[in-house]
UniProtKB/TrEMBL annotation:
PANTHER family: HLYD FAMILY OF SECRETION PROTEINS (PTHR30469:SF15), MULTIDRUG RESISTANCE PROTEIN MDTA (PTHR30469). Belongs to the membrane fusion protein (MFP) (TC 8.A.1) family. Transmembrane segments: none annotated. This is Efflux RND transporter periplasmic adaptor subunit. Residues 1-27 form the signal peptide. Keywords: Coiled coil, Signal. PROSITE patterns: PROKAR_LIPOPROTEIN. Residues 106-178 form a coiled coil. Residues 66-206 form the Multidrug resistance protein MdtA-like barrel-sandwich hybrid domain. It holds the Pfam family BSH_RND. It comes from the Bacteria. It comes from Rheinheimera marina. Residues 221-287 form the CusB-like beta-barrel domain.
Amino acid sequence: MKKLTVSALTLALLCGLSACSKPSASAAAPEAELPLQLVSQDLLQLTQTQLGLGPIISGSLQPVTKAALNAEVSGIVMQVLKDNGDVVQQGDVLAKLDPTIYRDKLLSAQEAVRSAEVTLAQANRQLTRMQSLSKQSLVTQEGLESAENKANQSLSDLASAKARLVEARQQLDKTEVRAPFSGVVAQRYASAGDTAQVGKSLMLLIDPASIRFEGFIAADRVGQVKVGQAVSFKVNGYQGKFFTGSVERINPLANENTRQVQILVQMDKTDEPLVAGLYAEGHIEAENRQALMVPQSALVKEGDHAYLWQLQDNVLNKVAVELGEPDERWGTQQILSGISAGATVLRHPQGALKEGAKAQLVPAAGAAGQTAVQSGSGV
């Protein structure tokens, strides 16, 4: 009985091991690899676009028309009527200084003129009498000359008094600081109660309509720049927007410290309210031509070689390309050979992509986490 039990147990174990050693149906059949899911934003169709070649220019926006308004007479600042950012018209009063001293000077000068006029009138009457008596030989020649000298001196005194009157009136007028042109107050330096000496800065006034791009280029690129060439540039604070203009002047004197050359760029009209002093960087279009361009983000670089991932017939292929000139305005790269216009490539290739992998274009809402690349903005 005991021997029979052991044999049955052995048989059961053998049957169990045999069952475990058989491959299951699911393990025997390999899983089918799912295609990569792509949305339209993942793809880019290559086209011929403009390649701009020329030097990089960097600098800032600066107003051509600006004025530092300084005190032309000394006195206490009584009022400051405008503040930073205020729009003013030509002739508007911006600040007032204490006019008391200069009003008194004006009154004194006016009295001096009236006194000189009276003295001159008396001297002229006396001269007329002396001339009449001289014709009758009733006065000496010396008396006549004395009358003429007194009349001439009175005339000179009147002229001096009138000059002092004009000066006093000008000084009184200068106690009111007025805008020399229409513009915007860029900086206020004084407040009511300040003591203003002659030459003290009160305000800085600029004309926003006169803002231009004042930039610098490397000295070794100055030979490529000519007046009238187009310029495109970006300005800090205006994200995603490009401004355009043209080379207005080339400074004939290089910066003595950096040896860079200043380029003055006249900006094209824009609806944007520009702010002076902001940093700007752009590109002078010394040469333009049509070329096959791709964004730098689409390129995969391995050492000295560059590749694009092309999607053709729902299959991904890694294509070697030859690079040409970069367009530093847009961050794009010229493709000389390896692929042609009309080809569809991945805009942002990422992850472990495989040569010959299947891909499937799906609506953006249906794209799952299997997407091989992240969507991004176009060129």
